[in-house]
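Subject: for your reference before the review

Hello V.,

The reviewers asked for a structural picture of the protein, and I figured it would be easier to keep everything in one thread rather than splitting it across files. Below is the amino acid sequence we used in the manuscript, unchanged from the supplementary table.
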Amino acid sequence: MGRGRGGWLAMGWFIMIMFNLLVMTKSENQTCKLIGHTGYLEFSKEGDLLIGGIFSMTSTRTLIDNDYEAAPHYYCKALNDRELKFARTVMFTVEEVNRNADILPGIRLGYRLYNGCGSENLIRASVEAVSREESECSDRIQALLGHSSSGISEDINLILSPMSIPQVSHLSTCACLSDKKRFPTFFRTVPSDRFQVLGLVQLMKYFDWRWVGIIHSVGSYSDQGTAEFSKEALREDICVEYRLPYSKSSTKKWNTIMKAMRESSSSVVILFMSLSYTKSFLSKMESYNITGKQLIGSEAWITQQELASVERNHILQGAMGFALPETSIPGLGQFLLDLKPSDEPQSSLIRAFWEKFFDCSFSPSNTSILCTGAEDLNMVASDYTDVTHFREENNVYKAVYLVAYALGELMKCDNGANPTTGKPCVKKNEVLPRMVLEHIGHVNFTTQNGAKVFFDENGDSVAQYDLVNWHLRDDGSVQIITIGQYDTSFPEGRKLKLNNDANIAWIGNSSEVPRSVCREPCPLGTRKAVNNNKPVCCFDCFECPEGTISNQTDSPKCVACPPEFWPNEKKDICLPKPKEYLSHQELMGALLTAFSCVGVFLSFLTSLIFLTHKETPIVKANNSELSFLLLISLKLCFLCSLTFIGRPTEWSCMLRHTAFGITFVLCISCVLGKTIVVLMAFRATLPGKNVMRLFGPVKQRLSVLILTLVQVMFCIIWLCTNPPFPARNLQYYKEKIILECAIGSAIGFWGVLGYIGFLALLCFILAFLSRNLPDSFNEAKLITFSMLIFCAVWITFIPAYVSSPGKFTVAVEIFAILASSFGLLLCIFVPKCYIIVFRPERNSKKYLMGKIPPRTL
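And here is what came back from the structure prediction:
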């Protein structure tokens, strides 16, 4: 807990006290005597060994200046129920220790408990505790308990450390007190604020509160705590939007706080304050209409129901924070409630508390009833009489046991020596505080109520907290419910645990966890980028680049998909790329298949017409044997186009290219043979020429066979060395895979095409030379035109094939096959079929032998 520092007067008192200490410790033989105002001792019990305690049972102070007739001093008047409860807990625990002969056998423990308010009085009280005017220096306390405030404990330990007097605090939580170089004699049974800070950071992380505000009081407790929180929070990417100090008297600071709370975007506010500051803050905030702020309290005030009131319950509804764990101390509750003024007849303080509890007076008065001293504390509702559960009181309980166990270890004697240290045994009148200090840090025990007590190297105990939540009842009262625990002895990731049945109340009676972020988490498919001009929590989100994904929120980077995968539309998962190939099911594939079938049908129909009219002059005059072979090759040409449609496989890739190459060479060989026959026939009609014997039917068939076998040999070499194979093209399209047939050997592929082109060009030249030969039906004209179409198609095919993407490459190749096949079929055979079917009168030898005017292309 924290407190505000005094001014110049406090500094003057402190310097004076330190000077007095130097004077009284200068000589061991000198009597210990405190100069100045004394009388802070409130309760005492004699014993063989003594424990001291410093408590603020009165809290509000008034300066008595005495009109310069006497030294000024502070007068304390307001009563603090909780501090009285702490002091009475010390009395109870000392009695319990004395009843247990196992801890301090043959030794009675006593106490001297001091009361003071304000820094100066408390420091003077601590000096009075370690010095006795009426006795020797050796008759001092062996350890000092207190104080509740971290700032006061700092000052007290600066005094105690030079004298090696151990100090044990039950409620001073400032992490600064863990510095053993500055505070070598300080111990505490309450966890350091560092553990509370770590717990608060884990709480923010648990509910995903990444953007918070902090309002803190002035003093060691809150200054150190908020600074530590800001540092630890940043490690977990939790940012502090504002961190503002609150002063009870500064209007400027208050206006700054109210402006920040109104204009801030964070909905979670941490009040890191001592109890007195929290009372002041909430009382001022009652008149301001600020809603939607989820309060997170520090351990100092989060369990204090006295803060509740009708005016401020809307502010505290749903408040949450860490508190010291609830525990049971058998007998303490009854001990507290059994208090009577007659138990401490010399204590005016007890009489003042009694008058406050029962609104009566021990002095006759017309304004109040007379106190009898027999009133029942069970009928009083206050912090002192709240004995349903104990939190801070358990730390006081453990502090007394800590000193008792340390004294017990010190007083052990076995054969004239201490079994722990090996040093000579110590008698009870020889015990010095420094001896207790040597043992107190190594104590490890369990109290009667099951509380384990031991310390780390910094004098800190194990940190255990209850996570509590404020619930507003229908009658306007507040119930503080435990909803979880935070235990630093558990492994990382399991220190904070919420109860499974936790019924959490939120600000505004909402059923949902409040959101408090500067920027909502980057969704899937985006990456998180830090904006250097803003806090780390106010980051930017950028969509993942093409081909990358992020499958978690706030992903720092986007990950590229594997080569055969592509992001979905949201860019949060990688899906297998769709595979593209020319299929029979799609429209383009179906149309090309239909055209292939039409070509086969027309070829078959032409063959049927020629077969039924094979004895007619027009069929005989045009080399019927080569015509039938040409029609068969055309059927194969149309059919080979079907091998290009469908999913590429190893066999289909080899078949489609070789079948295409061989069938087209067969087709062009037949046309070339027919062209040569026309030329030979003309030569045979010239006088003295008989060249038809040089290129008769046998040689025609042989020439077709040889020309085709050359292509067959090309294909065999191609297939044996580096054949076509199915491949996945991942380069042309980023978002899909092209299933295609790789040509394997480029020399083989272009060699096959080149051979077909060579034969087609040769055929075209011979046919062109024969186009004007005198004949009534010169077939050379039709062959020339068909070869012209053939060459034009395949010359156009080359750039189209190279530039067409994906399945369109295959479509272009099929189109070239079909176009050139239809060109041959239509140019060579349709005119003859037309005469056979529709102009049979021209299908006569007389007509074919007649003279007709020459025609040109």
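For the response letter, the relevant points are probably these. Confidence is low (pLDDT under 50) at residues 2-17, 21-32, 851-857. Residues 34-191+392-453 form a domain with the Rossmann fold fold (CATH 3.40.50.2300).

Happy to draft the paragraph if you're swamped.

O.
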